[in-house]
């Protein structure tokens, strides 16, 4: 039976993955503590190098504990940044995925709304600052406190 | 003596502001606890309605205590979202302004980098999810916990 | 019976709105002269502050007569700007909503096309000007005529 | 004497243009009623096909009278759309150029601000509509009135 | 029988096209060597000037042989650029169309992935370079080798 | 003597790099065959994890030979995609850097123009396809030839 179309290419099924792809699929399930491989990663697996590059980047930044690292940002803060960026870009897959992740971390719909309201606000002020070509008045300090 | 050009229109000088504009300028200095009005607001003042609309939105969302409100987000989290959006849009004025604000709240350059790394990561994954037209696999729950 | 999913959060139904949200819902129906509250506002109502901020901004700029203001721009011109921005950002909800609003104001499909053709043209020239990093040759005059 | 760098490639000087490029340069000066060729066109002339494609599109849409056409939009409306798009994209060359064009058509700084305020507003609502993945409630009519 | 809705306006059917629109429809079928007119062009035909402007630009740049021109870029390279831009903008119609075109030119799903991986990578680095406001260290040479 | 400001944070000087950062700096010079570390990498080094994540991704995709990989794309094609994305985003650092890289690979200014013309064209058609909400007519084949 044909799986419904979920992308412009045929994603790699979990049970057909082999070698490096199968290892990364296992790492994704383990690291994210889920029992399936999300569409995103099954699609990226059609180019194993791409899968590896993106998973390495995401694992390091979003699952720092899995690489023995401590992030200066809380998990919910990281997902809020992800949601704000995805809303700015209008990416449907990403908005759904990061809203779900935020909810899993306990965020109410009101908190999701606060993130989006702030993302919306700064898309407005960005347009204004660029639309008037306003020069910076505040240069950030170069040195840490 | 002519002030150097800082925008495509001539900004309103603090000492020439009158009426509603002067009141908002005072509110900006008071609410932000600074002794000058940043370029952004002096430029928006060339259209007082625009100044009022944008200041009301920004004051409510970014200075909730000034309107008797409690935000579910920390001030630093709000500035991180602002920086992530501004980096995504490539807005020079905004990047400088929000980096400075984050620094004032105690963020090290390493923490600024963590915000930008995550913003960069999701600009990458947004491109991939949209570039493959990947269907959502996770719909967020509609109800709060 | 369950309403079909229309967003990542459960929108506020018109008949369950209370307090400030109910007042804004009534204001939206009155100001826009419609007999229902569009999805956008029902979704924003999940965070009443967000609803208030966005409605205040939109009411002031797009329904100036409702706040005792005269806009220098015609209603159709305002909707054309809205459509051009929404097309540039690729926002499906917004494109549908602003095309419908333009049509209600009497625009033919040919006029909609003229707006989009011009928006498309300048997305092309923006890419070229940025892609070559071209310096401005014309600085706008700072003073009004 | 070396001209200062104004782009990533060396623009074609007006007096070194020949053939089709010289003809288009003349057409630009005549159609726009100016006595110099703006940087944009001198840069595009480094690839004459690109110059021709972009000039044809811009001449047809922004100078309809020069091609014996009547546009359904006023010149100022067309420039407002151009400014709104350029502000959304943050294109410095384009913002300066279209603000100057609007000013030449008589727009006050307050009117420029009204255009930018509306462009900013819809960049905010676009982020919200996409950030919540809101379904359209209003489909525009397919037929003209 | 009503055709299903495919756009915000009613597209022009192939058999109802007349005059200049019919000529361009024929040119599209001939130049692209296909036996139908894609939705895009049928929609643009609701404003014949828009149809002509966009088709002229696309024919010249993407079908150079049809205008007696030699492009410095291979057809597959041109489609890769188209896909990278469409992925960056998140345009569904365009991603589908350019992926199909690339496939028709023989690209494997792995090659599509390589294009998207590189587009994703530079969306990430663009965010970082803009998010830190990094000054250029390498100015391209102005003269050709 | 103070180095001029090149970013919102103080970049790491080549001679002050230690440990993993020094190793990556050496790898950058070796892999890119240059005798200095570009600003981008010196800035990212303020957060070594970020430096490592971005360098790994870029090295793998843009310098495949350095990781024992064969890319399906030519070096010039990869740089063209980078330039098209950077032009679309309007990133000054990136446009300069990728134009310089293309030139180093032998591209004439006319070829740079061809890339930008195509990137501009598809930013135009993306706006049109999204601005009309056009449905795909061509779904790419899922299987490789």
Q: Percent helix among the residues of chain A? A: 55-70%
Rg of Cα set of chain A: 19 Å
Structural class of chain A: mainly alpha
Total strands of chain A: the figure is 0
> Pair with the most extensive interface?
C-D, 72 and 71 residues
The string of secondary-structure elements of chain A, in order, is: HHHHHH
Q: Number of helical runs of chain A?
A: 6
Largest beta-sheet characterization of chain A: none
Q: How much beta of chain A, percentage-wise?
A: under 5%
Tell me which oligomeric state these chains represent. homohexamer
The average pLDDT score of chain A comes to: 96
Q: Spans of chain A of 5+ residues with little confidence (pLDDT < 50)?
A: none
What gap, in angstroms, lies between the N and C termini of chain A? 61 Å
Keywords for this entry:
homohexamer, mainly alpha, 6 helices, 59% helix, globular
Helices and strands, with pairings:
The structure is a homohexamer of 145-residue chains.
Chain A: H1 19-32, H2 39-44, H3 48-62, H4 75-89, H5 92-104, H6 109-131
Helix pairs in contact in A: 1-3, 4-5, 4-6
């Amino acid at each position: 039976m044909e799986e419904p179309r979920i992308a412009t290419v045929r994603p790699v099924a979990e049970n057909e993955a082999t070698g490096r792809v199968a290892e990364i699929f296992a790492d994704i399930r383990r690291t994210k503590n889920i029992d399936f491989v999300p569409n995103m990663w099954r699609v990226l697996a059609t180019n194993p190098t791409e899968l590896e590059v993106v998973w390495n980047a995401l694992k390091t930044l979003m699952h720092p504990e899995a690489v023995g690292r401590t992030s200066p940002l809380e998990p919910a803060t990281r997902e809020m940044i992800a949601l704000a960026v995805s809303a700015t870009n209008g990416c449907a897959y990403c908005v759904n995925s990061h809203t779900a992740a935020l909810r899993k971390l306990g965020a109410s719909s009101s908190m999701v709304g606060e993130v989006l309201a702030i993302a919306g606000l700064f898309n407005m002020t960005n347009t204004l600052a660029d639309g008037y070509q306003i020069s910076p008045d505040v240069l950030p300090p170069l040195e840490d406190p």
